[in-house]
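Running this now, will post back.
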Amino acid sequence: MQHGSVVRLIRDRGFGSLKMENGEEIFFHATGVVGYPFDNLAEGQAVSFEIGQDTHGLGQRAVNVRVD
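Update: finished.
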C-alpha cells in the first residue's frame, strides 16, 4: 500500500492526481476511490492507494484509493 496526498482534483471530469511519498504524481479516477465520495475529497487530504495499470494503456494509475 502506498501513501500520499491529493494534489489536484478535476471534479467535473472525475479525476485528479496524487502526490506519492517519493514526490512523484500519479493519476487517479473517481472510480478508483473506495469507501468515500469522490466529490468530498479535498486537495491536501491524506490517502492510501495501490498502483495499477491504466485500462486505456496510458501507464500507471492509483487504484483502491482510501482516505486515511
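The chain is about 0% helix and 55% strand. More later if anyone needs it.
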